[in-house]
Amino acid sequence: MMKSFIHVEPESHFSIQNLPYGVFRPVKGGKPRIGVAIGEYILDLSVIEGAGLLKVTGLIQDGIFAQPTLNAFMALGKDVWSKVRGRIQQLLSEEEATLRDHLALRDAAILKMSDVELLLPAQIGDYTDFYASKEHATNVGTMFRGKENALMSNWTHLPVGYHGRSSSVVISGTDIHRPKGQMKPKDADAPIFGPSKQLDIELEMGWFIGPGNEQGKPIAAAHAEEQIFGLVLVNDWSARDIQAWEYQPLGPFLSKSFATSISPWVVPLEALEPFRVDGPNQDPTPLPYLHKNKASTFDIHLEVHLKGKDMEQSQKIISTNFSYLYWSMAQQISHHTVAGCNLRPGDLLASGTISGSKKEERGCLLELTWRGSEPIKLTNGEQRVWLEDEDEITMTGWCQGDGYRVGFGELTGRILPVID
Ligand code: CA
């Protein structure tokens, strides 16, 4: 097993097998720049590049890692990503002396994670949110339309999605104020305006697009994974009462656009390869442009923890897996572009809520509490149906290797009271 000269605990998400990219700023000052996470540390790639140690074919732009976003690197494509990743892995390995024995360079390039502030990894031009979990779509459909009409007739033929809002995508650790909006309570004759009383989470994963495609030139499913730079955790905060009133006929609008949180470390698709698995069987067989030609998903264990203001410790409320998703990332990319829409470097696509067949695998409170009829019991005696002010949500996820993990770290967000 490959090891780094930097100590990494077996449970650490940031093994040398992972090396996720992020954008950070040292707390003591300095410009935002790009690094990779390793154990409790960050390797500052702007320093490594500046020292001339990242010369790989195709990496033509000097100072690409001194930039405040990953967009330019994302645009270079899979071959360059792979070479750069291989080079960084080599520099961090315990057998390689170049960095290991160069104490001054180590001093300049390796920072403690506690000494930096993590920033959004990319300038996100467009954010698209899908609805790719059959269990989630079935549960929500059952609650809103009854068991017989749970899945709409299009659902098993195409990955349903909508255009989200990129301006309100925020990094882990950002507090979210409870949104206000229009709602129409069940028995009311007219809508009311006020703070949402049905604030929810959605456990999702997102992926950043690499080079993208020209407008009018769709990305074939067989080549769609080449467009995936890497994955992050996504919490697509949702105000269910605002959503229920506004969503027809064009889908959710303000109920989701107030905030979407993402985790800071972008895990390269290549790091997930050892964890590739088949997705669910698809019946009916999708149309040819959506055909899968190989195992198309990854075994990523996912958890959500909740901590109320009166709780001493957080409590696990969801435990599920990325591989349960019905539609693969490649199918979602192919479908997104098939009519001619162009994707650009740094675009964010997200899966939609990830649910499984068991109760604890349901990826949002709406499903977990079955629209409020089965409240969650918390260890301090409280109950939860929807999020309350001061609730802190932490999402996490990882692939378990033999003696190491490839993980996503944590995605946290806390609900603050409505702004008057
Ligand atoms: Ca969503």
Low-confidence stretches: none
Give the amount of beta strand, in percent: 25-35%
Q: CATH architecture of the largest domain, please?
A: Alpha-Beta Complex
Number of spatially distinct domains: 2
Ions, cofactors and other ligands present here are: calcium ion
Q: What top-tier CATH class of the largest domain fits best?
A: Alpha Beta
Mean pLDDT: 97
Q: Tell me the major beta sheet.
A: 8 strands, mixed
β-strand number: 26
- In CATH, the homologous superfamily of the largest domain goes by the name Fumarylacetoacetase-like, C-terminal domain
The CATH topology annotation of the largest domain reads as Fumarylacetoacetate hydrolase, domain 2
User: Span from first to last CA?
Assistant: 56 Å
- Based on secondary structure, the structural category is alpha+beta
| Apparent shape | globular
Radius of gyration: 22 Å
Helix content bin: 10-25%
How many helical elements?
12
In short:
Helices cover 19% and strands 27% of the residues. With 420 residues, the chain is an alpha+beta fold. The chain binds calcium ion.
